[in-house]
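Hey, I'm writing a tutorial for new members on how sequence and structure tokens pair up, and I'd like a real worked example in the thread rather than a made-up one. If someone can provide the structure for the chain below, I'll link this post from the tutorial.
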Amino acid sequence: MRAASYLDTSFLIKLYVSEPGSSDAVSWFRQYRDEVLISSLTDVEVAAALYQKLPATEALQVHEIYRGDRILGVYGTVTVDEAVFAEASNLVVQCAERFRLRSLDAIHLASALSAGIEKFATFDARLAGAAASMGLTIIPTRS
């Protein structure tokens, strides 16, 4: 069994919307989709991102595809609970000087850490730095 990978929204959205980095995200996902996790927070972020990036009709269509994937169980889910929120708060403080984590990014990182994952997929450089500082392998690999 492969080690679980956590997908943040910046990575996940590239699987549904063609934008810079999408081909890398799709290629990686095709190879490692066996065990990927997202946070329960991600559903809200995906909806918001789609409706910000796309015209409403197209966003609705893409959102339905994403929701279908969720129903089919394409992604495992890490539930955001009180322990994850507490860890996210600690991460904001711990990473304040170097990374200045945003609140939702801290929740993503805390979700991944609480699930004991080894790989963290993101296109957000600040979040990637914080995740790497916690010992996670970053996907896609940064050069």
